[in-house]
Design a protein that fits this description.
Elements lengths: L2 H28 L5 H11 L8 H14 L5
């Protein structure tokens, strides 16, 4: 992969992370159980990313963030 592809991928993933943080905060504030699939669905439906993201990819990226943290984002 070239550097431009890597940069675009990083931008896309940062947009996902930003939307995820906003929505997970909203879900947490409700006091209800947080359903990760519902959060990912909301990220996809409510955010307006500059890049197309499939549900599967968003779930994979957000699950990785949950497991490994955000140090790479």
């Amino acid at each position: 992969m070239n550097n431009k592809s890597n940069e675009l991928r990083e931008m896309r993933d940062k947009e996902l992370l930003s939307a995820y943080k906003k929505i997970i905060k909203e879900e947490f504030e409700t006091g209800n159980h947080i359903d990760r699939k519902r959060v990912v669905k909301r990220v996809i439906e409510e955010s307006h990313p500059h890049f197309h993201v499939s549900f599967e990819h968003a779930y994979k990226v957000l699950s990785s963030i949950r497991i490994h943290g955000t140090k790479n984002f």
